[in-house]
Write a structure and sequence with these properties.
alpha+beta, Aminopeptidase, 6-stranded mixed sheet, two-stranded antiparallel sheet, 34% strand, binds coenzyme A
């Protein structure tokens, strides 16, 4: 778990953009350029297997994107460990992220690891889609993508 080298960065960005369909991630009404954010990568035998992009503001670390390119192999858990270490190192006392109502895997993943649901914005994705029609209407498990949910993990002293 580490920051990518300058040489690796273009390939990391390509992979993250491919996973999300665009370099810009619109969450809670804000468009994040994923290629402009700091990244933590998970590598296995020289191959990129996971990546998380984030920003730290006012003692809070927000995850803009988190991807395990091979699911259910422990990559997400390892990335989250690196996220928490980075947050602590940078003096943040909270890690949070936004996901959508269809993303049951992420809702499960984060809650199993101590995150609490701290916010819901009904219709937020519908609203973003008016500006960006390329946002899909149907997501995981055939569920219509409409709402945003915020999850947060408070970091206690180690
Ligand atoms: C959400 C996400 C990051 C989780 O990553 P992941 O690598 O699948 O997570 P893990 O493998 O660490 O954990 C998932 C489950 O698989 C289990 N698992 C891990 N390794 C395993 C193995 N070798 N065999 C079987 N199960 C395993 C874990 O125990 C865990 O189950 P638990 O929650 O009951 O403990 C991943 O699903 C993902 O990239 N989703 C798409 C993008 C996304 O939605 N991101 C989040 C919103 S930004």
């Amino acid at each position: 778990m580490r920051a990518p080298t300058m040489v690796e960065l273009p390939a990391v960005h390509r992979r993250v953009i491919a996973a999300w369909g665009a370099p810009i991630m619109v969450v809670h009404g804000v468009g994040y350029d994923l290629t402009a954010l700091p990244v933590i990568v998970a590598m296995h035998r020289g191959h990129l297997v996971g990546a998380v992009t984030y920003r730290i503001d006012a003692g809070r670390m927000e995850l803009a994107s988190m991807n395990a390119f091979q699911p259910r192999r422990g990559i997400g858990t390892a990335l989250l460990g690196a996220v928490v270490r980075t947050a602590r190192h940078r003096g943040a006392d909270l890690v949070w992220c936004t996901t959508t109502n269809d993303n049951l895997d992420a809702l499960r993943f984060y809650q199993r690891r101590g995150f609490r649901l701290v916010g819901i914005r009904p219709g937020a994705v519908d609203q973003s889609r008016r500006r960006r029609p390329e946002i899909p209407t149907v997501g995981a498990y055939g569920i219509a993508i409409r709402d945003e949910l915020d999850l947060a993990l408070e970091l206690r002293s180690p």
